[in-house]
Amino acid sequence: MKEKVTGSARAINYRYPPICRMRHTCIEKGTGTFKDMIKDIKTGIYALKSASGTSNGETFTIIPCFSYMIRNGELAEPVKGVKINGNLFKSLENIDMIGSDFEIISGLGGCGKKGQFPLPISKGAPHIRIQNISVGGEV
Q1: Do residues 50 and 87 both lie within one domain?
Q2: pLDDT tens-digit profile of 3-15?
Q3: CB 114 within 8 A of CB 10
Q4: If both were cysteines, with which of 20, 49, 74, 123 could 65 make a disulfide (CB 3.0 to 4.6 Å apart)?
């Protein structure tokens, strides 16, 4: 991708070769409030806290810990088995609002690329609203 070399190759221990992998992922905070984000959503999903995720090139899947329906701008019933997936770059283009409530989470989970699990990672993000993303689950 013609990016500058960052030295991001890591390995879980000496038995594995270092490979490029996740270390710390952040989305910078914006100015929106959570209430503003959901107030004009007729039907949607509120997914929070990532239980797991995978990526393969430009495609990704995220399984949130908790999910709720959004109906007419209000949080509604819980939803089980939600999976969010799509093309990373198209999904980033579909972010139309970013919250001001930034939070860093570290020490939970890890990068399991090529069977090297769990190499510790950290992440940080505010609430974000993404339009037109693939979501599956059951009420």
Answers
A1: yes
A2: 787 777 888 888 8
A3: no
A4: 49
